[in-house]
Write a structure and sequence with these properties.
By secondary structure, the protein is mainly alpha-helical. The protein folds into two domains: 69 residues, SP0561-like, CATH 1.10.3910; 154 residues. It is built from ten helices and no strands. Helix 7 runs antiparallel to helix 8, helix 7 runs antiparallel to helix 10 and helix 8 runs antiparallel to helix 9. The longest helix has 35 residues. The termini are far apart.
Length: 234
Amino acid sequence: MTTLDASRGQLDRTLGDLVAERPARARVFERFGIDYCCHGQRTLVDAAGAAGLDPVAVADELDAVVDDAGADVDRLEPVALVDHIVDTHHRYLHEELPLLVALAAKVRDVHGSRHPELARVAALVTEIHDDLLPHLAKEEQILFPAITAWSDGQRSFPFGTLSNPVRMLMTEHDRAGELLEDLRAVTDGYQPPADGCASYVSLYERLEHLELDTHRHVHLENNVLFPAVTPDGS
């Protein structure tokens, strides 16, 4: 099979599968502005077309990506993957979100008269904080313990099957994705203005890291963990 044939063979695969197979591909999707986490069930040809991109050109770049150590995480069994998500992504959000709320308010108060968009930035950061922290609690207190029980053979829970909380949490993931899209738009892709102070620059750098980490986090849940524990959709 030629390289071109191999790349074209990716076109009907889902974004989630492509990243799960080779996590470093996420960087290609990030660069093209293609949502591979919340909308990871789209095929590459559909997602590229919707973004006005040549699907074969995107596939060629995906095929050229060298695998990295992150692939091991995408292949973890459900309980081990849950532990990784909590220890890595949940811990980061618990620590970082309150700090970002305070920093966004500080930058707004200092620079808001010259950059009125900072009021919207601060409001979005607060909304992300207020949405995500209860979301993490639902996962840590309800879904993730149930996944451990599911791995031990349990199939019925007070809330029915695992699909019920999974559906709710995926809807909340979609909302987080929309807020992050709004944040990227209002910050001009996290580009601070020329008169931005060190705190202004730090805020935008940390917000961009929040976006990247949340995309990875949601990908691991939507496209790896949740399909593994709801294999028949039940």
